[in-house]
Amino acid sequence: MLGRLYEGQECAAARTLEVVGERWSLLILRDALFRGYTHFSDFQKSLGIAANILARRLEVSVAAGIMKAVPTSSHPNHWEYVLTEKGQDFKPVVVALTAWGDKWLGLGPAEYVHETCGGIIGQHFHCAQCGADPPPAEVRAQRRQFSPRRP
Amino acid sequence: MLGRLYEGQECAAARTLEVVGERWSLLILRDALFRGYTHFSDFQKSLGIAANILARRLEVSVAAGIMKAVPTSSHPNHWEYVLTEKGQDFKPVVVALTAWGDKWLGLGPAEYVHETCGGIIGQHFHCAQCGADPPPAEVRAQRRQFSPRRP
To answer: Based on CB atoms within 10 Å of each CB, which residue in A31, A91, A130, B103 is the most buried?
Structure first.
């Protein structure tokens, strides 16, 4: 099913890349998340990739539970690829990639907005303890501290 | 230098993947960002990849301006790979990948904390207009609206 690309890597970021680290996977997600695409032909037109590669990537997304294949009501032999909740949850990854590109490679054609008020959406870190939205320089990683079991 | 992996894709997320979409690139960044690694041998030990592949990825990171190669003071023929500001700015991408993996693939071994108070760090969307931190379902993409030039 999914190739073990990052053998021996237990970290959550590495395991996420097992699922979406193959070329085109994140751009298929972008199209599904923010353009609302569900049809094979829409993804193909947007990405301009070979049909066999796209078919394989969609198959892998379904196997990973990121999308589900749903028969279209009008054409019983056609399928639509619909994001699951697990797939919807990739929005922060795509927004973070976009923000980096906008800043360092020049503004791209898309911006993210708040559906209810139309305001521009940014992405921030937030500290659950002191309530600050710290800059990246104040964010560090540590080994997760599991709470001891209750007796 | 960098391969054009996503030919014809002008979006900022796609162009970011041109820079860090090759296998291992984001995990090298993770090690540099959150483990403070700068030496070839530390990356190699952490990732367990072939020396020629790691050398190529570091070379590409330097060419892209994400890292700079600095001679070590103690060994004049050795180099350290130090993140630039452009590289430091990948923290939100790595944190977003980790959050997805923690939620959908099981908790990984690392968590992110606020350096100044030790609190757990989360990542949120924030609306510049209404001040809300909206859920992903309320975030949508639109074509960027450039302000007209001033006369």
So the answer is: A91
**How many whole angstroms separate alpha carbon B122 and alpha carbon B117?**
14
Chain B residues 108-137 with CB within 8 Å of chain A:
108-130, 132-134, 136-137
* Neighbour tally for A80: CB within 10 Å: 17
Chain A: give the shortest CA distance to residue B23, in Å.
7
How far apart are alpha carbons B5 and B16 in whole angstroms?
11
CA A96 to chain centre: 10
Specify whether the CB–CB gap between B108 and B102 falls below 8 A.
Answer: yes
For residues B80 and B138, give the distance between their C-alpha atoms in angstroms, rounded to a whole number: 43
> Cα–Cα distance between A109 and A113 in angstroms, integer?
13
* Interface membership of A63 toward B (CB under 8 Å): no
A104-114 residue pLDDT tens: 999 999 999 99
B84-96, pLDDT tens digit by residue?
999 999 999 999 9
B59 Cβ contact partners less than 8 Å away, ≥ 6 residues apart: none
Nearest partner of B46 among B38, B59, B68, B21, judged by Cα: B38
What ipTM score was computed for the predicted complex, to two decimals? 0.91
Q: Are B111 and A80 in contact (CB under 8 A)?
A: no
Helix/strand number for chain A, H first, E second:
6, 5
- A·B CB contacts under 8 A: 285
**Contact call for residues B119 and B112 (beta carbons, < 8 A):** no
CB-based contact A130 B116, cutoff 8 Å: yes
